[in-house]
Fold these 2 entries.
Entry 1:
Amino acid sequence: MRVLEIVAGAAALAGFVQADVPQLPVPKTCSGVGQITYAHTTSPGWSAMKIAGNLKQVRTIVWDPLGNMLVSEATKGISVHTFGADGCINSSKALISNVQLNHGLAITPDGKTLYVSSETRAWQYSYDPATRTVSGEKIVVNGMASGIHSTRNLLVVPSQPNMVLLQVGSNANIDTASANKATGRAIIKIFDMSKVPASGYNYNTDGEVFGYGLRNEIGFTADPNGMIWGVENSGDDLTRTNNGQRQDIHKDNPSEKLNFLGDPLKTRDVWYGYPTCWTVWDPTPFGTMKTGSQFVLAPNATANDASCASVTPPRLSFQAHSAPIWNTFDANATNMYVTFHGSWDRQPPTGFKVVQIPFTKLANGQYDPVAPPDSMTGYKDIFSAQDPTRCTANGLTQSNCFRLTAAAWDPAGRGLFVGSDNSREGEIYLLSPTA
Ligand SMILES: *[C@@H]1O[C@H](CO)[C@@H](O)[C@H](O)[C@H]1NC(C)=O
Ligand SMILES: *[C@@H]1O[C@H](CO)[C@@H](O)[C@H](O)[C@H]1NC(C)=O
Ligand SMILES: *[C@@H]1O[C@H](CO)[C@@H](O)[C@H](O)[C@H]1NC(C)=O
């Protein structure tokens, strides 16, 4: 299948051309919304307020071209929210009711088409931003495998909106079968939505492979050049066996990852290492290896760390067990922001925060993190549970702390919207630069 038929004219890059959206003030509080439920710390230079509550588990936030906010609420569906002149929500309604929806939500740059996903399917809808209504429901992808990782992230390629990226995570902590791309797991595929067969695509047999060996790439976003950056949740409970000696390395390894996934119009079939090669966070157990290096769990003469040379390593590493869920750039890609859902596989717990990754534009025009790939300090907290080491994680959505998910930079200039899918209450917080 030849998928790349460039749509005439360069479409505006979603999230970077926002001239039509009126700018809004940062509210101090919003009537009827209340305070952020959980004890938190906001870093100097930022303010934080709760802008929406009483939602189901918030997973994804996207904006339509009029600045309306569309929210994916796991086990409920998609809601849409408008804002008043004070910057607060002034109307909310259900847009799509479907208890199977659990994360994925994407919109074309013209705002006319939505994509949503469940564990096994993706649907397309026509959307009208003026009336905030959908029509023309259509199943576009079927047959995604179920498994321990149930969310299926979606992204419309901004410069070619008929192309849609759709991700499936692994079916186990170490899913050896996923090394075979035909399993359709630990993978991101790309589908041409202008040619969907009447019964929808089959995930495993149709589409093209964008990247694989991605254990669970829950969030990905485009930079202003249209290059894709994804965040990956890596393994739990890892041990390393060297010369017959088995060592528990799980507390601070492997790293969670920020992957540069490349150009969705050109890049195909790149291997990111899973389930064979893992990334060093804390180099202490690894001799001379550095943060960002690749390792295998049980090196021997034929299969060892050097065998990972064909892996595309992450561009930046995060603390093990942070559980990054979503990433987004600010208005001119000066920084990326990542939400950390927080851990169960580490004592003391970690995560439960939003971090900022400073970016730079290189001489060749590419966007790139300021920190080198072996850095352990390439990002900093801007908003955090007051004491992440005391946050519980009973199941995926229960905690005495927020469980941060969605991250979306506001086209109306108020700052960063972040979601929480704590099952007690779905909340959305607004983090605003004060400087
Ligand atoms: C919300 O506020 C906007 C902007 O002031 C206004 O155009 C719209 O009519 C308001 N909607 C409701 C339901 O109050
Ligand atoms: C080396 O490790 C690989 C991967 O675990 C395994 O398949 C292979 O049998 C091992 N080789 C030897 C000689 O033990
Ligand atoms: C990016 O935007 C910020 C905030 O509007 C501004 O302070 C900064 O100068 C901009 N940077 C560039 C490179 O345009």
Entry 2:
Amino acid sequence: MKYYSTNGKAPIADLHKAVVKGLAEDRGLYMPERIKKLPKEFFDTIETKSFQEIAHTVADAFFGEDVEADALKKIVYDTLSFDCPVVKVKDNIYTLELFHGPTLAFKDVGARFMARLLQYFIRNTQNKQVNVLVATSGDTGSAVANGFLGVEGIHVYVLYPKGKVSKIQESQFTTLGKNITAVEVDGVFDDCQALVKSAFMDEELNHHMKLTSANSINVARFLPQAFYYFNAYARMKALGKADNLVMCVPSGNFGNICSALFGHEMGLPIKRFIAANNANDIFYKYLQTGKYEPKASVQTLANAMDVGDPSNFARIYDLYGKSHERISSLISGATYSDEQIRETMRQCYAETGYTLDPHGACGYRALQEGLKDNEVGVFCETAHPAKFKETVDNIIGGDIQIPERLAAFMRGKKQSVEMTKNFDDFKAFLMSR
Ligand SMILES: *Cc1c(COP(=O)(O)O)cnc(C)c1O
């Protein structure tokens, strides 16, 4: 499969290059040249298949031309070492729980898949270790670090702003050891990002060591997210509830919903989609006006969706031939204030006993408000509510249980390298490795 850039000015890439580079030379996002339709027979019996079997078929359509069959199957099965179940919340509203992975958020799926695919591509360059640099404001670092943990031939450097991520988040990438190094930068997130960017551009450093990114726009991180939408359809079909399915995705950078749309293009019978936003309403406004006007993000309770210029908009725009009409006839939007998020979490808990996290709350509310009589809705719970324990406890007046695998991180011993925000210091550190 060939990959082109959404900006149309970079050379066509193969999968190997698209995965190692992440972003195209013209700063566009890579798109697969073709999206294969899956046959009707696949959907006819999909409810009899396991999550891994379904994912393997989907992975084969995306990556089968470029990865040996046995290796691809192993990558898929290793990635999906946990389930993404569909759970009933109330009549006609179900949730796709994406938080059963190691760091309790949906990003585990893409990060685990990418780590294994990257390892596959570098398998023949044995003595040359690949170094992944990732800047994080909290959640990406944990998903990437845990996704790559123990993967041979790859070392991960997680740069994070000192004192600016929550203790829970910090513990998820500073306690791992092995091939993960946490770099605690005396600065803000943008300083971390700037250090990573400078590193990629520094010739001497790139000569010294092989560097790559694990950015969320990487095709190996975003496409595998389609797996769980096919699985959700299968599980809903088994319940006899799949005929008028509405998929609602709490969205920030729009990678997650974009993978669902790719699934739809492959023939997944979802009737329509809802992108649920917090107060960062750029996509919502685009749907109403046809104008895409990025702006600075505002801080909200659903902070993983605080994005003012969603990167994957470029992919959605490209996928539908830049047609506002096509986009807005398939996807509708919703936008909620922090107050509405709180109200929804309280109301859902009181009415159904289900504990929403602030991101999932946007999805649940959008279905409650937007679902028509004959439709059944599934919204993504993109993270476990315990990841936001203080906020969630405050809002619903409870004491939410911290799952053991999260508690285990918090008991671990913190190890990090202190760093200034000066690139020369960071470079000297990497050169000494
Ligand atoms: C990253 C994230 C989102 C947003 O997903 P996008 O793919 O960026 O739209 C939503 N919820 C949680 C918990 C996240 O970590």
